[in-house]
Amino acid sequence: MPDHPIASTSLPLTRDGMADVARRALDAARARGASDAEIEVSAAVGQSVTVRRGDVETVEYNRDKGMGITVYFGKRRGNANTSDLSPEAIERTVEAACAIARHTAEDDATGLPDDARLFRGNVPDLELYHPWGLTVEESIEIARRTEAAALAVDRRIGNTEGATVGAYDSDFVLANSRGFLAGFPTSKASISCSVVAEDKNGMQRDYWYTSHRDPKQLENAELVGRIAGERTVRRLGARRLPTTEAPVLFDSNIASGLLGHFVSAASGSSLYRHSSFLIDRLGTRVFAPGIDIREDPHLKGEMASSYFDAEGVATAPRNVVEDGVLRGWFLSSYSSRKLGLETTGNAGGNHNLLVKPGDLDLEGLLGRMDRGFLVTDLMGQGVNPVTGDYSRGAAGFWVEGGKIQYPVEEVTIAGNLLQMFAGIVAVGSDAVWRGSKHCGSILIDRMTIAGD
């Protein structure tokens, strides 16, 4: 991992300054009798500008720094945080963490990760730091162009929730009492827009956004605005459906949510608490044949790429699902010990999760579905993590003969995640690359659609 120095003027704390804070906190923990300790010190700057109806609505700027420390007294653990990094505040924070640990029950699974699993600097540059360096005036100009492009799509777009341009840079150091000390900077840039359209049937809103580590990889302002406007207008005249059963196609913009439910159920905390519908399913077919899901933390420039997880454990590419068969969990050191397994380097969550795409784009998937419901928006949190029962409010479009017929709103789609995963007919080639989960549109053979 190459060094990435950040100019001292850009962040409230330099890399050397963060390392000094970490060492000071470690020394303070040892002096109080801690058997082990882990410290994360971070610094960040961010700027967000929102324009609504051509006028500047908000300009937000943040400049933050902080430290979190976890101390261990044998198998007892305590944690404390502070945003004040003065020597006195560091001492107080370490003392607070130690006091918590002394009064906490022992837990055999607690403790630092195994030394052999820690990151050793053997991964090439992942290119995660690309500061945008926008002035406020430049952000305002981009936001105005974005909103103007959305409003120009159709005269029925008469209102707007605004366009926002954001730029964020951060850096951190993770250190522990076993001698580990590493960190790396990241950046994030984004452009978003949301507008409202109205006709005789009522009002509809929709949005679009683009985000990336590298601002050069963003969709341009005019495209973001145009897509936001087109998505909004196409929802006008939406109607309800009669209750039925039919194939359901999850648009790529929301299909990653299904992966999110899978990750949650396959995570160590859900497994050792016995609150997962995937218990005892390792090595069995969970998804439809042909479905492959790979985790690759080392994709250059991606939002969920990382050299190591939140504990310092080295990350590595792996296959999580092969031909529909579940091959791996998402485990931290703690959850892996609770389960009698090895950590998978997923403390803090999954890294880039990639579903192997099929050959069909959205239009091709509509043709394959022939008749059914294209879902473009989901509402509510109706997912039971224990049973996998799934029920959420939805909006989208009814499809007949492989063609969109009319917009749909105020319906509920229901099923069971195990049956839904097993019923995946096809995955599209139309993946939206943002966030930690990447997949195209997902066609499921059958779900209940509750309407009139």
Could you tell me the CATH topology label of the largest domain. PmbA/TldD fold
CATH architecture of the largest domain: 2-Layer Sandwich
The stretches of 5 or more residues where confidence is low (pLDDT under 50) are: none
Shape: globular
Mean pLDDT: 95
Distance from N terminus to C terminus (CA atoms, Å) equals 57 Å
In CATH, the homologous superfamily of the largest domain goes by the name: PmbA/TldD superfamily
Q: What is the number of helical segments per DSSP (H or I, 4+ residues)?
A: 9
Largest sheet: 7 strands, antiparallel
The CATH class of the largest domain: Alpha Beta
Our count of domains comes out at 2
| Strand element count | 18
| H/E topology pattern | HEEEHHEEEEHEHHEEEHEHEEEHEEE
Can you offer a commentary on this structure?
The chain has 452 residues and is α+β, with helices and mostly antiparallel strands. It has 2 domains: 15-233, 2-Layer Sandwich (PmbA/TldD fold), CATH 3.30.2290; 238-452, no CATH class. The chain contains 9 helices and 18 strands. The chain has helices spanning 15-31, 87-102, 136-151, 221-233, 252-265, 268-272, 333-339, 362-369, 417-422, and strands spanning 36-52, 55-73, 76-82, 157-176, 181-182, 186-199, 202-212, 244-250, 293-295, 318-322, 325-326, 353-355, 372-379, 389-400, 403-416, 424-427, 437-438, 442-450. The strands form 3 sheets. Strands 1, 2, 3, 4, 5, 6 and 7 form a 7-stranded antiparallel β-sheet that branches. A 5-stranded mixed barrel has the order 8-13-14-15-18. A hairpin with a 2-residue loop joins strand 14 (389-400) and strand 15 (403-416). Helix 1 (15-31) crosses helix 2 and helix 3 packs parallel to helix 4 (221-233). The radius of gyration is 24 Å and the shape is globular. 43% of the residues are buried. The model has no long low-confidence stretch (mean pLDDT 95).
